TrEMBL record:
GO cellular component terms attached to this protein's record: methylosome; nucleus
Physiological role: Non-catalytic component of the methylosome complex, composed of PRMT5, WDR77 and CLNS1A, which modifies specific arginines to dimethylarginines in several spliceosomal Sm proteins and histones. This modification targets Sm proteins to the survival of motor neurons (SMN) complex for assembly into small nuclear ribonucleoprotein core particles. Might play a role in transcription regulation.
Transmembrane in keyword set: no
Gene: WDR77
Entry protein name: Methylosome protein WDR77
Record localization: Cytoplasm; Nucleus
SMART domains: WD40
GO biological process terms, semicolon-separated: oocyte axis specification
SUPFAM superfamilies the record matches: WD40 repeat-like
Source organism: Zonotrichia albicollis
Matches recorded under Pfam families: WD40
Signal peptide bounds: none
Intervals holding WD repeats: 138-179, 180-215
Length: 359
């Protein structure tokens, strides 16, 4: 299950995928080499993190072993939107809204059975984000959908799947505008370009990263980055530089790539296993948070120097989101059923939006 949200925050695209037993489980032991009148107080953590309480997701229960927190988004309305998967080979999906101040108390929860692989669904948040409503479900991919990204302007989106296809969607019309098969293996990630509604990136298990512009007769251009020597697993555009994107591979390497000069990419060995996601902060000089199958969370500055690291997760880390109310707070979720809040050191000259009292 993956999702993306447009800038307005009104619609969520949910892509249905099976998570059968072929997913590897993490072994996270030692490894080699209505909005409130005032900003909400996030649950604090003396050690930089805190854990939510999920009585229905106890790891000791048989069902709990088949569940995992897959993605999240922190909302300005003091709500965390979480997505859970349970069961295999045909799991069910749950959308859960949690109060940031009371993580153990769901605001609302919607559970639906997952359909066969290849479905793309549109969900909307209604009634002050307390109600999650399904708007459509379309089968266009022939295999598991692995990634989705809403394009600039919020009227279109792009999806990628294990059928090697990349598809561009018209959200209001609920149709596919373009279908491409430029990859020869499963697409692992797609990412839209801020400010350019026809431009996006894709990477796949064919070891190729493609730059797309749907205005062109031949829309895909291969970006060769010598800094990443393993299969690419995650991509994301820089929020302030339309020619720069971040690329992560299955070895844990992170690279900042200039589309005009990819050979000059700045890279660093940040993790020891595959990168599973990125998120840029809202700082004037954005920090880059990365998560990985090595169960760690890292935050890097513009030079890819580490400013924060946390190893509290005990399984794959699968989702992350910066707080819209406090630039110093990063939230992560993983297959260990934990929701962790991390207090990240601020860059010089930056001020935190709220003060978090340690408990």
């Amino acid at each position: 299950m993956v999702c993306a949200r447009g800038p307005a925050g009104q619609a969520a695209l949910a892509l249905q995928q099976c998570s059968p037993v072929w997913h590897r489980r993490g072994n996270c032991g030692p490894r080699p080499s209505t909005a409130p009148s005032s900003p909400p107080r996030w649950p604090s953590a003396a050690s930089g993190w805190c854990r939510s309480s999920w009585p229905e997701l106890r790891p000791s229960s048989p069902a709990g072993k088949k569940r995992g927190l897959q993605a999240l988004e922190a909302r300005k309305t003091s709500v965390l939107q979480l997505m859970l998967q349970s069961g295999c080979p045909w799991p069910s999906l749950s959308w859960v809204s949690l109060s940031i101040t009371e993580l153990s108390v769901p605001v609302t929860q919607v559970s639906v059975p997952l359909r066969p692989p290849g479905a793309v669904e549109l969900w909307e948040l209604e009634e002050n984000e307390s109600l999650i409503v399904n708007k459509f479900c379309k089968y266009e991919h022939d295999d598991i959908v692995t990634s989705v990204s809403v394009l600039a302007g919020s009227s279109q989106a792009v999806s990628g799947g294990r059928d090697c296809c990349v598809k561009v969607w018209d959200i209001p019309e609920q149709t596919v505008l373009h279908s491409y098969r430029a990859h020869s293996d499963a697409v692992t990630c797609v990412a839209s370009c801020p400010g350019k509604d026809t431009v996006f990136l894709s990477c796949a298990e064919d070891n190729r990263t493609l730059l797309w512009d749907t205005r062109c007769p031949k829309p895909a251009t291969r970006i060769v980055c010598s800094a990443c020597n393993y299969l690419p697993t995650s991509v994301m555009w820089h929020p302030q530089k339309s020619d720069i994107f971040v690329l992560g591979d299955e070895s844990g390497t992170v690279a900042l790539v200039d589309t005009k000069n990819p050979d000059s990419a700045l890279s660093a060995a940040v993790h020891t296993q595959a990168i599973t996601g990125f998120a840029f902060s809202a700082h004037s000089s954005p920090l880059l948070a990365s998560i990985s199958e090595d169960c760690s969370v890292a935050v890097l500055d513009s030079d890819l120097s580490e400013v924060f690291r946390n190893h509290s997760h005990r399984d794959f880390v699968k989702g992350l989101s910066w707080s819209p109310s406090d630039d110093a707070l990063l939230t992560t979720v993983g297959w260990d059923h934990q929701v962790l809040h991390h207090t990240v050191p601020l860059p010089a000259g930056e001020a935190s939006g709220i003060n978090c009292v340690k408990e």
